[in-house]
Amino acid sequence: MFDVFLSYIGKGSARLRGLLQICITMKIKKNYFTTLVTLLTLTSVQAQYVYIDIPDTTLEFNGDYFDLDLNNDTILDFRFIQYRDTGTTGLIDHSVIIPLDSSNSRVYGRQRGFFFYADKLNVGDSISYSSNPWQGISSTDYYGTIEYRFDSISDPYSQWQEDTEGFIGLRLAKNDSLLYGWVRIKIENGEKLIIKDFAYQSELDSAIDAGHLWISMQEKHLSGYKAFISQDKLILTRPENKSSAGISIYNSVGELVVSGNWIDEKWSLPIHLFDCGLITIISESIDGVWLERIAVIH
């Protein structure tokens, strides 16, 4: 038996997403909605990775904006703006990021062509002092370009031309030190900017990898715990008479797909709930942490 909570995410999405249930959760009021915050501690490096999941926020009309408080200290750090059909021609779509404190905020990126671009990062890319020149914001215009399209044609220097998700690396100056984080976004046809979730490394001057913490961790084995695919099902097994375990399954880009409580020794889910790619399975109980990855192929 597996007590699982499922809900659809994203407009028209085929993926399922559960309530976030890892370690410590608490509710906070933020930008007109409630978010779920999870604090995860990496004891091996004595650093804290804070992941914040928010309802997908879509900017699709001219001038729509979203303000991001990266490190959850009630001080807004970055503004995302979607411009539609602007300019003297009315043919420009422009997705931008603006530091609300330009002296202390930086974006992972560099100048390419006419614009200072926010680079598109993948899962596992390191975000640190040495990983990038941190020139994703113009020092004179005080904004960074994510995507720019004229008459529906992308600027060739943009890394966000394909309608896929990616991560933007962010940096804040705090107490004479640096705090690193990321935000996951998606651009659709240059007309929509969707903000999905974000995270930061609360240990100052410590690097963070793009994507959810579990995605970057090595597999952890527990005696008797197994995962495999049989026909059209994902099957998890463990020894009998074990205590209830919290379990979460993430897709290849670090999105939480399923979360709940594993009660009996065997549990299965239809494989069609998962997109093709590598999924990460995490079980947490008094027995310890079990982490395993499996490739899903339809």
Strand order of the largest sheet: 4-5-6-18-17-16-10
- Alpha-carbon Rg, integer: 20 Å
Quaternary state of the chains:
single chain
| DSSP summary: helix tally | 1
How many structurally independent domains? 2
Q: Which strand-content bin applies to the residues? A: over 45%
**Spans where pLDDT lies below 50 across 5 or more residues:** 1-46
Number of strands: 26
Report on the architecture of this protein.
- This protein is an all-beta fold and 298 residues long.
- It folds into two domains: 1-27 and 218-298, Immunoglobulin-like; 31-216, no CATH class.
- Helices cover 1% and strands 54% of the residues.
- The protein has one helix and 26 strands.
- The strands form seven sheets. The protein has a seven-stranded antiparallel sheet, with no helix packed on it. A five-stranded antiparallel sheet has the order 1-23-22-25-26, with no helix packed on it.
- A hairpin with a 2-residue loop joins strand 16 and strand 17.
- The longest helix has 4 residues, at 213-216.
